[in-house]
Design a protein that fits this description.
The structure is a single chain. The protein has 136 residues and is an all-alpha fold. Helices cover 73% and strands 0% of the residues. The chain has one domain. It contains seven helices and no strands. Helix 1 packs parallel to helix 3, helix 2 crosses helix 7 and helix 3 crosses helix 6. The two termini are 20 Å apart.
Length: 136
């Protein structure tokens, strides 16, 4: 198990700005198994999104601002996306700027956890698989 990739993916979906894509590409350049690396990165990023979802369900606005550094404009934009596109908008949870607020709003709006996990996992898996495909 590549714990550094898992943790980089987890943290990039929650508390810290940054990305895990560069580490994934580096591991692939080193000759790591692409399928395994994609699975590890996806799992870490999904766990990070689940933490953000749980913070949304907790509903503490001060916590959202301090830990996630998500401002009101980002939350409003994510709420608008979620209101307009509903659950399928969670396929875009991998996007920068909008992704974390979407996960937070899904928690705030009590989106069903099963739908959340499936849709977010599909989007994040697609992103990492595409990057791995480009790299190999």
């Amino acid at each position: 198990m590549d714990w550094s990739l898992f943790l980089a993916a987890l943290l990039s979906a929650t508390l810290l700005p940054g990305g895990s894509e560069a580490l994934l590409l580096y591991r692939l350049h080193e000759g790591a198994d692409p399928l395994l690396m994609v699975v590890i990165a996806t799992a870490g990023n999904l766990v990070g999104s689940l933490i953000t979802y749980a913070m949304g369900r907790a509903g503490n606005a001060a916590l959202h601002k301090r830990w996630l550094r998500i401002d009101e404009a980002q939350v409003a934009r994510a709420e608008a996306w979620f209101a307009r596109w509903g659950k399928p908008s969670l396929l875009l949870a991998w996007l920068p700027v909008v992704g974390d607020p979407l996960c937070l709003v899904a928690g705030l709006l009590r989106a069903p956890l099963a739908w959340f996990v499936v849709l977010v996992a599909i989007g994040k898996l697609g992103r990492y698989a595409f990057l791995a495909w480009l790299a190999v």
